[in-house]
Amino acid sequence: EGEGEGEGEEGQPPLKKRRRLVIKESDEEDNNKENKEWKELEQGEEEQEEEKEKEEEEEEDNKNEEKAVDTLNDIDKFGCGKTLIKREEKEKEKEKKKKRKKDNEKIKEDVNDVRNKEWYKNPRDKNGIKKGEEGYNPKTLLVPKRDLDELTPAQKQYWEIKSDHFDGVLFFKIGKFYELFFMDAELGNEICGLEMVKSKKEAIPHVGFPENSFAKYADAFVNYGHKVYRIEQMETPEEAKKRINKSTALLQRTICQV
């Protein structure tokens, strides 16, 4: 494709359309590590809940084992054998618990996928002005508090930052990788050829790259006329746990470079 003149914003010189830049990481170990970092993030948020469910299941199993009678040792006054809790009922209860757990995981997936939300499809700034209308501020995004509160902690943190910096691409640090989500991920795929991360727990658009490739990808976005916000972790997982006195904690993050 050749270069040509594109339409710029009012009062700004026209942007040049550039060839699609394809940047691929040859090290397969980096990709595997990225997927591991992402899984650990969501695992940290669910760890306590899963442990609690496991303890409840074990406690329930112990109670059922005490009550269950598989032989005719329990004889009532009429001389009839009876079983207090049948194994079939016990198995059915286990299946119900598994189904509830799967349903809860699906609900969490659906909550984080905000692409069908009105505020995502038809953005407004924090003053309620629609994109394209007079006075619209492209830097901010109005995200209803009730929708923010439904998200997992990491995604809530992401959208809190994104809502104040909607005019650029967020390079969101997770572990030793920078992650891009939703519309930013789609740009990363289009401009740099970054492949979407596949996750069983998350269906949201998501790409990433190792931290030592920051300059390369930042330059690629800037060359296409995009602003880049660099979001860094301001503490280690150990420091975060100590700060809020919990076994798992969301790390503090902030913009350190534009």
TrEMBL record:
Residues 1-10, 43-63 have a biased composition (Acidic residues). Residues 32-42, 64-75, 116-136 have a biased composition (Basic and acidic residues). One of its GO terms (biological process) is mismatch repair. Residues 152-257 form the DNA mismatch repair protein MutS-like N-terminal domain. GO terms for molecular function: ATP binding; mismatched DNA binding. InterPro entries: DNA_mismatch_repair_MutS-lik_N (IPR007695), DNA_mismatch_repair_MutS_N (IPR016151). Residues 1-75, 116-138 are annotated as: Disordered. This is DNA mismatch repair protein MutS-like N-terminal domain-containing protein. It comes from Reticulomyxa filosa.
